[in-house]
Amino acid sequence: MAVTIRDVARAAGVHVSTVSRTFSAPNLVKVDTRERVLAAAAELGYRPNQAARALTTGVTHNLGLIVADIANPFFPPLIKSAQSYARVRGYQVFVADTDEDPRAEEELISILAKQVDGVVLVSPRLSNAAIAGLSADLPFVVVNRNVKGLPAVLMDIGSGAATAVEHLAGLGHRRLMLLGGPRGSWTSEQMRRSAAAAAERSGVSLEITGPNAPTERGGRLAAAAVLEAGATGVIAYNDLMAIGTIEGLSGSGVEVPREVSVVGVDDTVAGRVARPKLTTIAMPTQEAGRSAVDLLLHAIDMPGGRGAAKTTLETSLVVRESTAPPPPLK
């Protein structure tokens, strides 16, 4: 038989309400009484019902984690890291996928708000104003979006994009193309700005296309634009797009990297096992998951002074087989 709160009250010689207060509001119970209740609970193996406690305290010990596309290999390492860290801190994580749809994102936030103590929003597609409005009554942390007044974990993709441009320029490429991501993507905008500035510094041309679907199919479709522009160096919004671009180019008889070099973003398993193995900008996804949960729990613990702490994580270029010097001019 499961141990109940009444069993603990009987063993400790107190009223049931005292046991309840010991677990929900321990500061309201005398120290000696609280210690007696906790000792009895430990001896009997009693575990308080979290759902029942949530009804009286408003604390669920649940967190929401909303991602743009759970099928994208960028997100699972971040999700796993966030879940593991939250569990160590005594929290469980509800994961939801918006399928890149800002309307679904808004709906999910509204639903989860009734069941969690705070939300981590990863690569959101909603506007900053909409996110700020939804976060008015619930602690929020955003990943890869800089929203005024909200804590954020930012991966320095701007620096990564600039490094990718410099890498291609250093190999001798003079006509580059940046395949932008979906509409509303903070990452895509940071890439666009930094890549354009790096191209100007390096003395190379850069054409930017987008918005594009951040998928393998999106990359295959974008391959036609690469061919039309005569670009010999390509930087894609993510690894999936980069792999799709390589497929699209191959289907048109263009070899990577002998004729066109391609750089991805994320450093996912898919890019590591692709042929050719993908040169990519490594994103610190696991560290981002832990940092986001840490910021969120701090915001939950200090509801009156959450502030807008920002954590910026470094990115790095991983050079593999999909980049090489351009073919000689004919």
UniProtKB/TrEMBL annotation:
The keyword DNA-binding applies. Residues 3-57 form the HTH lacI-type domain. InterPro entries: HTH_LacI, LacI/GalR-like_sensor, Lambda_DNA-bd_dom_sf, Peripla_BP_I. It holds the Pfam family Peripla_BP_3. This is Transcriptional regulator, LacI family. Keywords: DNA-binding, Transcription, Transcription regulation. Signal peptide: none annotated. It comes from Streptomyces xiamenensis. One of its GO terms (molecular function) is transcription cis-regulatory region binding.
